[in-house]
Amino acid sequence: MTDTIEAAPPPQLDERVGRRSAVARLFARPEAGALAGAIIIYVFFFVVAPPFRNASSFSSVLYVSSTYGLMAAPVALLMIGGEFDLSAGVAVTSSALCCSLFSYEFTTNMWVGVLVALVLSLVIGFINGWVVVKTGIPSFLVTLGTFFMLQGLNLALTQTITNQVASPSISNIQGFNSAQKVFASSFSIGGVNIRTSIIYWIVIVAIATWILLRTRTGNWIFSVGGSAPSARAVGVPVGRMKIALFMGVGLLAWFTGMIILFQFNTIQSGQGVGNEFVYIIAAVVGGCLLTGGYGSAVGAGIGALIFGMVNQGIVYAGWDPDWFTFFVGALLLGAILLNTYIRRRAEANR
Amino acid sequence: MTSTLESNQKTADPLVRLTNAGKHYGTIIALSDISLEVSAGEVTCVLGDNGAGKSTLIKIIAGLHQPSEGTYEVEGEAVAFSSPREALERGIATVYQDLAVVPLMPVWRNFFLGNEVSKGLRMDIAFMREKTKEEMLAMGIDLRDVDQPIGTLSGGERQCVAISRAVYFGAKVLILDEPTAALGVKQSGVVLKYVIQARERGLGVIFITHNPHHAYPVGDRFLLLNRGRSIGYYEKSQVTRDELTGLMAGGNELEALSHELEAAGGASASVAAALSEEVGELGLAHDTDGQQPSSSHTTTPPSTSA
Predict the structure, then answer these.
(1) What is the C-alpha to C-alpha distance for residues B199 and B207, in angstroms, rounded to an integer?
(2) Which residue of B has its CA nearest to A294?
(3) For chain A, which domains are there?
């Protein structure tokens, strides 16, 4: 009798690791919570807001989502790499202003302005990253500084140069049409108008995900955010990696800036303030940890979609839009609680 | 002490040999007159209390520091490493206490971190996952899921990942810095098993510890350090576990402490009595004064070329 009870477990099998079902595996992924949330919110607005149900209004939900989602992807990568960028929201406006004012004031071809803006955005990203890496000051503080500096520059320079609070219309500048075609055109499928930024959004999320999960660079991003000293010890160039991530945010800030600029052919100098939090919220809702080392670009994409759905859904449901920020705050809080729970399980299971 | 140089004529040169090595930091003598060697398929244990000079010794062997005196040879060739990377290129890998792993990352990503295998732009994930599983199996761990975050493994298993990672990337000599220090009894046993496993695979292991109970079962040689000096260098056949324990505890120091406590009187006296009893049991009082014959190499090391 005692023999059967005390029978040794089969050798080489770790008795502490239980079997996990396929469902449990799915829910262990960082974006699982965001996916569940997106489905619930979609169904919710599908029920309460009749206009939400038709394809063309959902196309505009996707457009709104894309303007945030394009930035949420690189911001998510940066957060996985262990850093923040609070200047990301106004950096989009800086890039758009730079492009339009440069081409307008120096009467150059539109594309010259586009390239100058690209250089500016990459330089802003580089400076953010370089200061963080060289000084070791938390990126929260460094980019808070650059955030306010850029905000001031956007307002002051636009005022000084144009005597206005917005950039002048650029639709007559040579090259505008081709640039608009590239950055802000649309096409139609089955009578539904679809903006190209939606396609760009999906492509960027796909590229970011591929980098993160399938390349050496992705491995390094996880490692510099998860434990920089360990990463350094095995030869990962931690500093260069972080600077590259900040420049990635700069690159997409430029791209998003161009999309917005060529959509409306003018841009308000005070625009973009507060968006940095939207990007971070999208990334966190999508499963990124504030402490770095964990997260997903797909999750950030879904986070941006949730943001877009709530944003437009409230309008379609005929509610007071003032409720919007309340919803966003509640979503963020819920996501953080979920993420903390997941991380505890991942880290503390011994 | 110079007899070490003449020994091992038949067998190949040891993987690592320090002869009369010392290290000064300005006027502070951190380490002096240390001789040690490790050959393939052998475990050399370095024992010492805090501040005995263990970490200085590791730093010399790992290539972080150069010895201020004495010689350092790798496979019979004198070397002067200027960085840990150079030591690594000669196959000397150090597994530090913090292990250099990223807790939230999967085991296979940790295993290949910094040495990723790529096919064009993308990583060869299938290969890396399979290799990780294989290498862990070779060390006696059957990982059910190489995708689980390494933070979910036990302390002993994590140590094992770090060890097998070093082995996979070409280590011939492993320096293990206090691998059992933060572990419980059972987990320590697991790690000791991997130390033996690594030895059987033909690696030389330098096992740094302050616990003679962990050192004795796995070690082939034992170097005891105290205050930067060698207080003994033994083959396993020359020393028993109790002697080792006594040397570690520093028999005469323990006795001095017991006198001190006795003088203090009161509750300390009973502690002192217990201490002196222990010293008596170990039979060590006054034996450890002066240098032990640190290399009476009449016995050839039990080298196994697996």
Answers:
(1) 11
(2) B104
(3) 31-44+51-342 (1.10.3470)
Any idea what the CATH number is for the domain that residue B206 is in? 3.40.50.300
A55-80 helix and A216-226 helix, angle to the nearest 10 degrees: 70
> Average pLDDT in the A143-153 region?
96
Tokens matching residue A162: 């144009």
A23 vs chain B: nearest CA distance in angstroms? 16
For residues B277 and B129, state if they share a domain: no
Chain B contact for A167 (CB, 8 A cutoff): no
- Asked if A347 and B103 count as a contact pair (C-beta separation under 8 A), the reply is yes
Instruction: Identify whether residues B41 and B67 lie together within a single domain.
Output: yes
Say if B49 falls within a structural domain: yes
Tell me, yes or no, whether B55 and B128 share the same domain: yes
Residue pLDDT, tens place only, A151-188:
999 999 999 999 999 999 998 999 999 999 999 999 99
Asked casually if ipTM beats, i.e. exceeds, 0.95, the reply is no
pLDDT-derived band of residue A113, with 50, 70 and 90 as boundaries? Answer: very high
Asked whether the beta carbons of residue B114 and residue A14 sit closer than 8 angstroms, the reply is no
Taking each helix axis from N to C end, the angle separating A55-80 and A275-285, rounded to the nearest 10 degrees, works out to 80
Range of the domain at B170: 3-240
- Residue A133 and residue A139: Cα distance in Å, rounded? 9
* CB within 8 Å: B145 and A17: yes
Picking from B104, B143, B155, the nearest residue to A226 by CB comes out as: B104
Q: For chains A and B, count residue pairs whose Cβ atoms are closer than 8 Å.
A: 88
Residue A217 contacts B where some CB pair is shorter than 8 Å: no
Q: What is the largest CA-CA distance in chain B?
A: 75
Give a yes or no: residue B297 inside a domain: no
The answer to whether residue B301 sits within a structural domain is no
Domain identity same for B234 and B212: yes
Residues of A within 8 A of B116 (CB-CB) are 216, 219
Both B178 and B234 in one domain: the answer is: yes
User: How many whole angstroms separate alpha carbon B87 and alpha carbon B92?
Assistant: 5
Q: Cβ contact (<8 Å) for A222 and B100?
A: no
**What is the pTM (predicted TM-score) of this model?**
0.79
Q: Are residues B205 and B260 in the same domain?
A: no
Is residue B58 situated within a structural domain?
yes
Q: What is the pLDDT of residue A20?
A: 55
Q: How far is B162 from chain A (nearest CA, A)?
A: 11
Residues B192-251 have pLDDT tens digits of: 888 888 888 889 999 998 888 888 889 999 998 888 888 888 888 888 888 888 877 765
Burial of B305 (0-12, 13-18, 19+ CB in 10 A): exposed
The answer to whether residues B122 and B265 belong to one domain is no
**3-class secondary structure per residue, chain A:** CHHHHCCCCCCCCCCCCCCCCHHHHHHCCCCHHHHHHHHHHHHHHHHHCHHHHCHHHHHHHHHHHHHHHHHHHHHHHHHHCCCCCCCHHHHHHHHHHHHHHHHHHCCCCHHHHHHHHHHHHHHHHHHHHHHHHHHCCCHHHHHHHHHHHHHHHHHHHHHHHHCCCECCCCCCCCCHHHHHHHHCCEEEECCEEEEHHHHHHHHHHHHHHHHHHHCHHHHHHHHHHHCHHHHHHCCCCHHHHHHHHHHHHHHHHHHHHHHHHHHHCCCECCCCCCHHHHHHHHHHHCCCCCCCCCCCHHHHHHHHHHHHHHHHHHHHCCCCHHHHHHHHHHHHHHHHHHHHHHHHHHHHCC
H or E stretch covering B18: strand B16-25
